[in-house]
Recover the amino acids of this structure.
């Protein structure tokens, strides 16, 4: 079984119509190059509140809904799955969700992932919490029988979520970021470290959880890193150019075998059995203060 993925990036902005044009164009580009699913960065369609614009006050939600429908209509026309970063409005003046819509190849939203770990402190008045509220569910869906999951930006700080996806059989993760739109004068050493930290973390998660990861980011200047794809074993097999819109095409082959020395014992470790093989009682094992 094979699945071809289009990992997309473009300079996300506060202009919903501009974002939509990029999304539609890259959907067509991805499909033309064989993609069966395309994934976009965090809040790619809506723009990211707190980054591209300060708050949702006066936000044009009806326009966002119309543009979302355009994406759904094109997905149906192209017979293409879309993992679409956006914002999801709630009722009664509640803060929105930072979300990804899962649109199938018939143009229907089959599920929505809401960012579970919003960045910010326990007061819930800083970071993401200024504009968003956290979600409470995993989003696992299947494309051609391959289980997929979604994580958004700060979620990647919690390795427990990746382990839970592994436990549930996920083989392909769509990990979205918004690490861009900074002025060059604002970039410090911490910003530059992201280009090392994020790929290394994604490579580790892929290797330790037996999954591939499609990593998307905005390419709006100045962004911390470009979008890339991680294969089984933690190898980055493709990377886009930073600050340049594009679609990275990667094909995952479920029949590909890569050695995984931990496979025979990982399930036991997850149950709290922290050793391989069969233990034997011996007094020289039990005495740990002598040679």
């Amino acid at each position: 079984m094979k699945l071809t993925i289009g990992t997309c990036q473009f300079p996300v902005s506060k202009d919903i119509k501009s974002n939509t044009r990029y999304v539609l164009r890259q959907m067509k580009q991805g499909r033309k190059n064989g993609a069966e699913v395309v994934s976009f960065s965090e809040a790619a369609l809506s723009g990211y509140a707190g980054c591209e614009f300060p708050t949702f006050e006066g936000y044009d939600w009806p326009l966002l809904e119309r543009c979302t429908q355009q994406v759904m209509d094109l997905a149906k026309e192209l017979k293409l799955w879309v993992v679409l970063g956006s914002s999801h409005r709630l009722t009664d003046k509640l803060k929105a969700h930072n979300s990804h819509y899962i649109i199938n190849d018939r143009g229907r939203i089959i599920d929505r992932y809401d960012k579970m770990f919003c960045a910010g402190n326990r007061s819930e008045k800083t970071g993401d919490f200024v504009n968003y509220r956290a979600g409470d569910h995993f989003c696992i869906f299947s494309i051609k029988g391959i289980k997929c999951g979604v994580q958004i930006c700060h979620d990647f700080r919690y390795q427990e979520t990746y382990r839970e996806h592994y436990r549930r059989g996920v083989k392909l993760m769509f990990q979205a970021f918004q690490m861009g739109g900074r002025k060059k004068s604002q970039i410090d050493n911490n910003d530059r470290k992201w280009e090392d930290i994020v790929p290394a973390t994604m490579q580790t998660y892929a290797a330790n959880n037996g999954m591939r990861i499609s990593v998307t980011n905005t390419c709006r200047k100045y962004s911390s890193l470009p979008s890339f794809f991680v294969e089984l074993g933690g190898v980055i097999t493709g990377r886009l150019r930073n600050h340049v819109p594009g679609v990275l095409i990667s094909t995952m082959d479920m029949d590909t075998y890569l050695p995984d020395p931990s496979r025979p014992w990982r399930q036991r470790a997850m149950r709290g059995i922290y050793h391989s093989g069969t233990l034997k009682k011996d007094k020289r094992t039990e005495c740990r203060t002598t040679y």
Observations:
- The first helix runs from residue 16 to 32.
- The helical segments are 16-32, 61-78, 159-167, 189-209, 263-270, 283-286.
